[in-house]
């Protein structure tokens, strides 16, 4: 009787899976012709999701101008690391970076400590350009946030931390970076964890619902964590496999005990 349990279970799971609604698998189910007004509104609201500079950010800041010599005082010297003990300042090599401290400030050449936390990258560029323009004609400031990343975990094909290389990455772009959600992933209840205003907020996202395009979490932010939980079929199979391993362990232990007892009985019976 026991030998029929596994085939029956597998057939049951497969039958249940085959009856699963495609609405749980297909993205944006029910989204007909795109509403041009809605799309226009989304494009206009993009600016709200530009990342802000925060404490502990690592920044590269490069100042340039037509006359390169005039901006030299506003650029950190590049370094060339020959070995672990020797560091030479040279004209070319690895660029030094700025770390935003706990007060939201950096120490910038000539001007000293400047508070730039809370600014967007573009706003910080304009701020520094305004300061430097007192000494240089038409300076250009380029800022990049080097440690921007997001983490994607769970039922995706390539989980892990992904660099955030653009300012307006959507949650769909983020999932694409992780190789898409696997067939065992639950697309109707994706969890996004985001730190906002000193506290951690949790958002549940249904990727099968076209309303996602109008949600504030459509654009991901740096340090967001996205978790795709397994669907019910995957959870049931995991529970079954766990129970199966437990049963095998119990049976193995029991057989070992019986074998030892039988050996002892045989040994005493030969005396």
From TrEMBL:
<keyword id="KW-0449">Lipoprotein</keyword>
<dbReference type="InterPro" id="IPR054765">
    <property type="entry name" value="SLBB_dom"/>
</dbReference>
<keyword id="KW-0732">Signal</keyword>
<dbReference type="GO" id="GO:0006811">
    <property type="term" value="P:monoatomic ion transport"/>
</dbReference>
<keyword id="KW-0762">Sugar transport</keyword>
<keyword id="KW-0406">Ion transport</keyword>
<keyword id="KW-0626">Porin</keyword>
<keyword id="KW-0998">Cell outer membrane</keyword>
<feature type="domain" description="Polysaccharide export protein N-terminal">
    <location>
        <begin position="48"/>
        <end position="145"/>
    </location>
</feature>
<feature type="domain" description="SLBB">
    <location>
        <begin position="149"/>
        <end position="228"/>
    </location>
</feature>
<dbReference type="GO" id="GO:0015288">
    <property type="term" value="F:porin activity"/>
</dbReference>
<comment type="similarity">
    <text>Belongs to the BexD/CtrA/VexA family.</text>
</comment>
<keyword id="KW-1133">Transmembrane helix</keyword>
<dbReference type="GO" id="GO:0015159">
    <property type="term" value="F:polysaccharide transmembrane transporter activity"/>
</dbReference>
<keyword id="KW-0564">Palmitate</keyword>
<keyword id="KW-0813">Transport</keyword>
<feature type="transmembrane region" description="Helical">
    <location>
        <begin position="248"/>
        <end position="270"/>
    </location>
</feature>
<dbReference type="GO" id="GO:0009279">
    <property type="term" value="C:cell outer membrane"/>
</dbReference>
<keyword id="KW-0812">Transmembrane</keyword>
<keyword id="KW-0472">Membrane</keyword>
<dbReference type="Pfam" id="PF02563">
    <property type="entry name" value="Poly_export"/>
</dbReference>
<keyword id="KW-0625">Polysaccharide transport</keyword>
<dbReference type="GO" id="GO:0046930">
    <property type="term" value="C:pore complex"/>
</dbReference>
<dbReference type="Pfam" id="PF22461">
    <property type="entry name" value="SLBB_2"/>
</dbReference>
<keyword id="KW-1134">Transmembrane beta strand</keyword>
<dbReference type="InterPro" id="IPR003715">
    <property type="entry name" value="Poly_export_N"/>
</dbReference>
<protein>
    <submittedName>
        <fullName>Polysaccharide biosynthesis/export family protein</fullName>
    </submittedName>
</protein>
<dbReference type="InterPro" id="IPR049712">
    <property type="entry name" value="Poly_export"/>
</dbReference>
């Amino acid at each position: 009787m026991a030998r029929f349990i596994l085939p029956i279970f597998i057939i049951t799971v497969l039958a249940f899976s085959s009856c699963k609604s495609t609405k749980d698998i297909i993205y944006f189910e029910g989204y007909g012709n795109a509403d041009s007004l809605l799309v226009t509104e989304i494009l206009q609201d993009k600016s709200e999701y530009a990342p802000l500079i925060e404490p502990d950010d690592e920044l590269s800041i490069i100042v340039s101008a037509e006359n390169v010599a005039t901006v030299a005082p506003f650029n950190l010297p590049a370094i060339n690391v020959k070995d672990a003990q020797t560091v030479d300042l040279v004209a070319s090599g690895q660029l030094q970076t700025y770390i935003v401290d706990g007060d939201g400030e950096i120490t910038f050449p000539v001007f000293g400590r400047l508070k730039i936390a809370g600014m967007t990258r573009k706003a910080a560029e304009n701020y520094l350009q305004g300061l430097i323009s007192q000494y240089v004609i038409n300076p250009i400031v380029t800022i990049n946030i080097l440690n921007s990343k997001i983490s994607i975990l769970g039922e995706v094909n390539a989980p892990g931390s992904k660099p955030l290389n653009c300012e307006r990455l959507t949650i769909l772009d983020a999932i694409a970076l992780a190789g898409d959600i696997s067939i065992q992933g639950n697309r109707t209840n994706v969890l996004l964890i985001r730190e906002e205003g000193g506290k951690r907020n949790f958002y549940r996202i249904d990727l099968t619902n076209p309303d996602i395009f109008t949600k504030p979490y459509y654009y991901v932010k740096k340090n967001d964590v996205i978790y795709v939980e397994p669907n019910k079929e995957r959870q049931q199979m995991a529970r079954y496999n766990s129970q199966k391993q437990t049963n095998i362990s119990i049976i193995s232990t029991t057989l070992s005990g019986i074998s030892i007892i039988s050996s002892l009985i045989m040994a005493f019976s030969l005396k």
